[in-house]
Amino acid sequence: MRTVWDIIKSPLITEKALMAKDESADGRQLLTFRVDTRATKPEIKSAVERIFNVQVDAVRTINYAGKVKRRGRIEGRRPGWKKAYVTLKAGQQPLDYGEAI
């Protein structure tokens, strides 16, 4: 059985993710995570609720295919990965990645 730490790999701390986190509409906060490629939306929701002790309103996921890279004649492939946008319910305490993890 997978644990919550197997499902949630790490928070994505990019400029786009931090801007989305700050521009929360309707008092709901949007968080971005890198998750396991086999994780489902209900698993992601329960993992975030258990790790951060918050209530999740919605989960959206995106699958990224690995890019093909070359170095001379040798061709390789980067691994694919999955990103999850997690929206917290209105009225939840704002979350800071550094404090929660």
Element layout with pairings:
Layout: H1 4-7, E1 8-11, H2 15-22, E2 30-35, H3 41-52, E3 56-64, E4 68-71, E5 74-77, E6 81-88, H4 97-100
Antiparallel strand pairs: 1-2, 2-6, 3-6, 4-5
Could you describe the largest sheet, including whether it forms a barrel? 4 strands, antiparallel
The average pLDDT score comes to 88
Low-pLDDT residue spans? none
Question: N- to C-terminal separation?
Answer: 22 Å
Q: Count the beta strands.
A: 6
CATH H-level homologous superfamily name: RRM (RNA recognition motif) domain
Radius of gyration: 15 Å
Task: Write a concise synopsis of the structure shown.
With 101 residues, the protein is of the alpha+beta class. It is built from 4 helices and 6 strands; from the N terminus they run αβαβαββββα. The mean pLDDT is 88.
